[in-house]
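Suppose you are handed a protein chain with no further information: no name, no annotation, nothing but its sequence. What can you learn? This example shows the usual starting point.
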Amino acid sequence: MNGGTRTNVLETDVLIVGGGVIGASIAYELAEAGVQTLLIDKDNLGSQSTRAGAGMLGAQVEMMNPGPMFELGVASRALFSNLREKLLEISGLDMELQTPGIFRVAVDEEDRQELLARQIWQREAGQRAEWYEDEDLRNILGDNIVGTTYGALYIPDDHQVRNNALLLALVASAKALGAKFLEHTAMTSFLTENGAVVGVQTQDGVIRANRVVLATGAWTGLLGQGLGLDIPVFPVKGQSFLLDSYAPPTPYTIFTHGCYILPKRNGQVYVGATEEASGFDTRPNLGSLAKLSTQAVHLMPSLASLPFAEPIAGLRPGSRDGLPVLGDVPGVPGLYLATGHFRNGVLLSAITGKVMRELLTGTETSVDLKPFALMR
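A reasonable first move is to predict its three-dimensional structure. Written in structure tokens, the prediction is:
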């Protein structure tokens, strides 16, 4: 619903600032726990990186090394099957979970060796990872589907969803459980008392809260400056495009350096994505899209005949060390962060909602949040 003009002070237990899949997941989890929750967003819900993202649940394909990020991704991926059923039951909306798996294609010998090494450590970590030589890959995908490769690592347990479908299911379910949402309600500053955050000022008035969660993606660093905080989160522009297809050429996600191709259940094909340091400029540009389309056609020649649907651009929340920032803010009671997920916001949305629910309800968290603490 719209923010509108308000003169009265709103009050809530938990206020979430930011209405992408991260904020919506937290709102859903808190509402399910019976916590009074209000979420606000300065635009439409999901209008930034959620709208622009591919929707990969790439717990393995996105990870170069073992460590906390890999473990967090695997833990989150494991939640999606049950989460889908719960959201479907509450809201009747399907996140469009697709489970054929992902092929991570090698484009040269160096890439091949890195992927073979990745297969070893991921198997040692208890995850499935299968190697296919080029001929085997062609037998599965067809010669007209994929160009020449140096083999591919197949990740059967990495899946995908459609971002907007996931967001709608989370929001509808959270609303059904009692959470409130205000769109077009921009936070302008924090409310503080005795050093603690007790709410926010918006352009429409004051919202008081016992706890405030910043799930504001690429904008979190800017908002933190209002309290003198150095939150190491910054915008990274990602450009991609959609193609129209009544029948996508393959059910599998095809992934390689700088380019990934995802067939969607609505018949479209998502092709992404660039990584650009361009500040807060969200406009698509011809050069980046031309380079991306050349990569995509080289990887999957059959895409060349598909009609172009639309360009997409959005700002991912990057972080200095590539890890998200999750948890409370030392020295600032009442303030919590859930940001910096970069390319993995959709993948990590499930575990982020869960651990923030645990943190805000005083329950021991499912994963160790120390590697993701602001002061790490």
